[in-house]
Amino acid sequence: MQATPPIDRLSGILERFRVQAQLHHTGALCGLSHFDACDGHGYLHVLRRGTLEVSHPGAHEVHASLRLEEPTLLLYPRPFTHRFHNPPLDGSDFTCARLAFDGGAQNPLARALPPLIALPLAQVQGLGSALELLFAETDHVRCGQRLLADRLFEVVVLKLLRWLLDHPQEAGIRTGLITGLSDPRLARALVAMHDAPGQAWTLERMADHAGMSRTAFANAFREVVGQTPADYLADWRIALAQSRLREGRPIKALAEELGYSNPSALSRAFSGRTGLSPRDWLKNEAMRNAPGGKVAPEKGSS
């Protein structure tokens, strides 16, 4: 029997929702370093050597404090307040980057990840070569250092995401997109939906991509991804609509692209998922990005 060809589980998402990195710090950190969620950034920290105590003031989703004593990678995919407590004289050695997921907290990948992933570097196979290049670049000031370091951080993020898809339980990934892409059969249906959101996706067609019966597919999808296939497809389409609207695309041009019969149908679906019309949502986004602006909450947000 011919082996099933491998699929690319990430490119379809990352081509539509980029993850950008910006070098934030390299070298020793001494004393107290505070990273506030109000700054609006995710973070990727690499503890290269030394020890580190991390605290999360007021957090309930993660441990109140952690002590790290070996080279470790810390990923905060969404803005999350955290503090580093380092020895005042013998600071630990770090390389850190700010992360910006397109769409912010509503980015499909950012939403699927826990607020913190802390992994010893030795545990994550495949990171070594990328980190070696990153460290070589950040250890010496040279022409174009910051730009190259930013791109290398993005390579590290991509390699980490690859590893997470193959080891979701080890990383403590909750039910959702990552666990769905980790399932070889469900991943084929998910990738097909990501690549062609405007097609007429019936349950039978999704199941065919997964090589499963309709009932088995629907049950497995709900158990592994945490929602029905139809709800996931609707969320994916609306996330794409939000991304396109941010780029200035008119709602009229998006309906056919995203599988809706007309702009009114897309507007109704958009309002049903977000609690706001596309026009009001865009106004909300503009106010959200304005200093001191007040915004109306989207449906389901806290």
Coarse shape: globular
Number of helices, where a helix is a run of at least 4 consecutive DSSP H or I residues: 12
In angstroms, what is the radius of gyration? Answer: 21 Å
Order of helices and strands: HEEEEEEEEHEHHHHHHHHHH
Give a quick account of the main beta sheet: strands, pairing sense, barrel closure: 5 strands, antiparallel
Strand order of the largest sheet: 1-8-3-6-9
Count the beta strands.
Answer: 9
Distance between the termini: 50 Å
What does this protein structure show overall?
The chain has 302 residues and is α+β, with helices and mostly antiparallel strands. Helix content is 41%, strand content 19%. A 5-stranded antiparallel sheet has the order 1-8-3-6-9.
Strand and helix layout:
Layout: H1 11-14, E1 19-29, E2 31-35, E3 42-49, E4 52-55, E5 65-68, E6 72-76, E7 82-86, E8 92-101, H2 108-112, E9 117-120, H3 128-138, H4 145-166, H5 177-182, H6 184-195, H7 203-210, H8 214-225, H9 229-246, H10 251-254, H11 263-274, H12 278-288
Antiparallel strand pairs: 1-8, 2-7, 3-6, 3-8, 4-5, 4-7, 6-9
Considering the chains and any ligands shown, give keywords for the structure.
single chain; 302 residues; alpha+beta; five-stranded antiparallel sheet; four-stranded antiparallel sheet; 12 helices
Summarize the structure.
By secondary structure, the chain is of the alpha+beta class. The chain contains twelve helices and nine strands. The longest helix is centred in the middle third of the chain and has 22 residues.
